[in-house]
Specification:
Layout lengths: L2 H13 L2 H37 L5 E6 L2 E3 L2 E4 L8 H10 L3 E16 L2 E10 L3 H4 L4 E4 L4 H5 L4 E4 L1 H7 L10 E4 L2 E9 L15 E4 H9 L6 E6 L5 H15 L10 E5 H44 L1 H9 L4 H37 L8 H27 L3 H6 L2
Parallel strand pairs: 5-10, 7-9
Antiparallel strand pairs: 1-11, 1-12, 2-3, 4-5, 4-8, 4-11, 6-9, 7-10, 8-9
Helix pairs in contact: 1-11, 2-9, 2-11, 2-12, 3-8, 9-11, 9-12, 11-12
């Protein structure tokens, strides 16, 4: 008997028990849908996070204080004073691959304007901070070198700060806000950037001269972080290596001593993020794949029941000339058809859910074609693997015994 007739017979047999066939396919549908959603969302989240990091500039280099260790235990950077203003000067004057650099210090406090208040973060830097962090001004102006020199009480604010402190005035330039009882005059408003992919509001920030934050808010003479911008993405690694070499000399570290700072490029952060999201995606796909195994076992179970129910039919077909291989392939095709139809439905549902979830999270919708192709292949393999033994059992029945079966 040719393949076309066997497939036709298998398909008609499934139509006789539509409800049972649909319930049997449910495990495959759920498994394929889960795998498609996990893979697509994994790629979407990775792409979205990478875009977020890249939006800060792929040539960004961050130098931070190294974590302190005590008795072999990491106790964090704490009040480590390993980075100072002269380190920034050294980077700007001696590192040929760096175009801009800024010290960065941060403090938190209650922002107040009249009866309105808002918990916020104030970040201090020099005049290049906005350029390095790819921040634009919607209104007003940046602070000046003279403002930094005099630790002027001026600031630039984000849209969230404006909305909460000036709900009835969207242009508060020239007005004062207080942070921990210290007044700051608003000289600029940042362009809105919205939330990043981690859910953090990028507009909820106050930027001031670093000297102002150091002296008036923190009472320190060291800095928390240094942000530098390489001349281009291609020389970012070279710039990072040169920064490390120069800072070791500035800090008078001996050859055997470890760095009291750490240098990170955006490429390193991107690679680390991609690695973490990749591992999470693999883990989630592995968990989702368990439902495929469960669905396959369900198909094997139903095929056993089908063989038992249709024992007389099998005996009758054999008695009129059907060969063992015809019976084998008939039931095997039924199993494969169940898996393929379930797989197609699962792929469609997976793509639809991926699109809905990605849209709700403001992630790009990315379709992983390899995942779709592999899912389709897995459906076929599942149908063959879990359908083979019941089909083999049906093909091995003795015709006379099958005809006598009650």
């Amino acid at each position: 008997m040719d393949i076309f007739n066997l497939v036709k017979i298998a398909y008609k047999a499934l139509l006789r028990n539509k409800t049972r066939a649909m319930l049997t396919m449910l495990g495959i549908i759920i498994g394929i849908t889960s795998v498609i959603v996990m893979v697509n969302l994994g790629q979407s989240s990775t792409h979205s996070i990478n875009d977020q990091i890249s939006s800060m500039g792929t040539n960004l280099i961050t130098i931070s204080r190294v974590s302190q260790r005590q008795g072999g235990v990491n106790i964090g950077s704490g009040d480590a004073q390993t980075l100072v203003n002269k380190d920034v000067d050294a980077i700007l004057s001696k590192v040929k691959y760096v175009s801009e650099a800024t010290p960065v210090v941060s403090a938190s406090g209650q922002l107040v304007n009249g009866a309105h208040n808002w918990p916020g973060i104030i970040q201090g830097g020099n005049i290049d901070l906005l350029k390095i962090r790819k921040l634009g001004l919607a209104r007003g102006s940046n602070f000046t070198k003279q403002d930094i020199k005099s630790a002027a009480k001026v600031c630039i604010v984000g849209k969230t700060v404006v909305d909460n402190l000036f709900p009835d005035d969207k242009n508060p330039i020239g007005k004062n806000i207080r942070i921990d009882r210290i007044p700051l005059k608003i000289i600029g408003i940042l362009e809105s950037k919205g939330q990043n992919q981690m859910g953090q509001d990028q507009d909820d920030i106050v930027i001031a001269p670093y000297s102002t934050v150091q002296k008036r808010f923190l009472g320190i003479n060291y800095i928390h972080t240094i942000m530098a911008s390489a001349n281009s993405e291609n020389v970012a690694i070279l710039a990072a290596e040169e920064i490390e070499s120069i800072l070791r000399k500035e800090h008078k570290l001996k050859t055997e001593q470890e760095n009291d700072f750490q240098v990170r490029t955006q490429q390193e952060i991107l690679e680390m993020t991609s690695s973490i999201t990749g591992l999470l995606t693999i883990l989630l796909v592995a968990i989702a794949s368990i439902s495929l195994v469960v669905g396959g076992i369900g198909i094997m179970n139903i095929m056993y029941v089908t063989v038992t129910e249709r024992t007389k039919e099998i005996g009758l077909r054999m008695s009129i000339g059907a060969q063992n291989k015809d019976i084998l392939f008939q039931f095997l095709y039924e199993s494969i058809i169940l898996c393929l139809i379930g797989g197609i439905i699962g792929i469609i549902l997976g793509l639809a859910l991926s699109h809905i979830i990605a849209g709700a999270l403001s992630w790009p919708f990315i379709v992983s074609l390899p995942a779709v192709g592999i899912s389709f292949l897995v459906c076929t393999v599942t149908g063959i693997f879990f359908g083979w033994y019941p089909a083999k059992k049906a093909a091995s029945l003795d015709p006379i015994t099958a005809l006598r079966y009650e």
